[in-house]
Amino acid sequence: MIKKAISIIILTLMLMVCTSCAGSRELNELGIITATALDIENEKIILTNEVVIPPATEPGNPIEDKVVYVQSTGDTIFEAYRNATLEFDRKLYTAHNMVVVFGEEFAKRGIGDYIVDFLNDSEPREALYMLVAKGDKGYNLLGINAGVASTSGDYLIGLIENFKYTSKTRSVTLYEYFKYFYKNKTPLLGVVQKVEKIETNKKKVKDIPSKTVLNVMGGAVFRRDKLEGYYTADEMIGFNFMTNKVKGGLIVFEVPDGKIDNKLIATKGKFTTMEIISSRTKKDIEIVDGQIHLNINVRLKGTLGEETEGLRVTELDVKNSIQKACSKRIEKYIETVMNKAQKEFQIDNLDIKNLVYIKYPEVWNEISDDWDKEIFPDIIYTVKVETNMVRTGLTNIPPNLEKGREK
User: Fold this and answer.
1) Residue 63's pLDDT band (boundaries 50, 70, 90)?
2) Which of 91, 119, 206, 216 is most exposed, with the fewest beta carbons within 10 Å of its own?
3) From its phi and psi, is residue 3 left (phi > 0), alpha (psi between -120 and 50) or beta?
4) What is the pLDDT of residues 230-242, one digit of tens each?
């Protein structure tokens, strides 16, 4: 009984100790970061943070969150963070930060030597999104909020996560970047830039002709950790098909003129839109007579989203024409990005070299040192796309069909 009583007392004391909060920090002591920009000027790191100051909690006296922008410098990112406390009255807290924007000059210098700080520190998230400010400083983009989000950081995150609706960009996290980097793969980051748009807010009293918004179309191409250039929005569609990363989006294309019952089935200059339901890309490498040949096969399932060409989609021949035209457009997307990767950048960020390594390891050992500059630019490829249109909507005979002219 005595031993049992002692054991209960010890367990009770342990529970009391274990439920205590050690190393806690109050909200009124923290500067919570929601977005970060990294730039380099005069050989110094310029660190800019969007910081949310939590509201006061006095009952009956609510105060909205405040957003301030804190900028500091240092020889390293870690030093810049600590130097911020010399001018800002709270210690910066990075655990809630979800996005970092690299200024273009910073990215051209090489990001690998600096961003290791985000891995060594225990606070930053591995799910931190990484973007490059195209043609601009990173700090010039913080503070722009053209959406309904409470901060510009949340607005930017919303834009990044919308990529699945267009496939015209790419969302890459800190974890994904280092996963590619350490596997000797060439990473590709998202892009963000400022765009001036016509002001459409009718509640504005003053006559403001334009407003600034952020645009995340395109991709930033890196050679190891240094920025080399950019892919356009259309090239990113091809890139996402090549890397089997298409989550959704639209394919806009023209159906070639043809005739059924002596009537035109398409009008030149008009467009049809296919909404992507699912997509799968398979790539295979063959070596014939010493020449590397890449086979790219895409299978797409989609639904007819919109058509302005006057197409009678109930006709089998018309349906086949639509599917074939959609496939041709996707092939063009892929050919465009392949041409740019091979001829302009000479960087295999499409992970083709991994196919060679897996299927022909002995050949890879011989050519690996010369891959990007000598081998990759000259590989031959064949693209085959199969489109399956599974839905055409409620109207099988569109109203603009009668505008077809007799030939």
Assistant:
1) very low
2) 206
3) alpha
4) 999 999 999 999 9
Return d(Cα 141, Cα 145) in angstroms, integer.
Answer: 9
| Backbone dihedral angles phi then psi of residue 174, each to the nearest 5 degrees | -55, -45
Pairing label, strands 44-53, 30-41: antiparallel
> What value does the CA radius of gyration of the chain take, rounded to a whole number of Å?
27
The answer to pTM > 0.70 is yes
| Separation between Cα atoms, residue 371 and residue 357, nearest integer Å | 11
Residue 314: count other Cβ atoms within 10 Å of its Cβ.
10
> 302, 251 in Cβ contact below 8 A?
yes
Asked whether the beta carbons of 319 and 376 are under 8 A apart, the reply is no
Type of residue numbered 271: F
Q: Tokens standing for 90?
A: 């709270």
**Tally of CB atoms within 10 A around 192:** 27
Q: How confident is the model at residue 196 (pLDDT cuts 50, 70, 90)?
A: confident
- Angstrom CA distances, 345 to 186, 260, 384, stand at 12, 46, 24
Q: How far apart are the first and last CA of the chain?
A: 106
* Single-letter amino acid, residue 257: D
Question: Domains in the chain and their CATH numbers?
Answer: 25-231 (no CATH), 234-407 (3.30.300.210)
Closest by Cα among 303, 311, 378 to 338: 378
3-class DSSP state for residue 305? Answer: strand
Number of neighbours of residue 136 by Cβ within 10 angstroms: 18
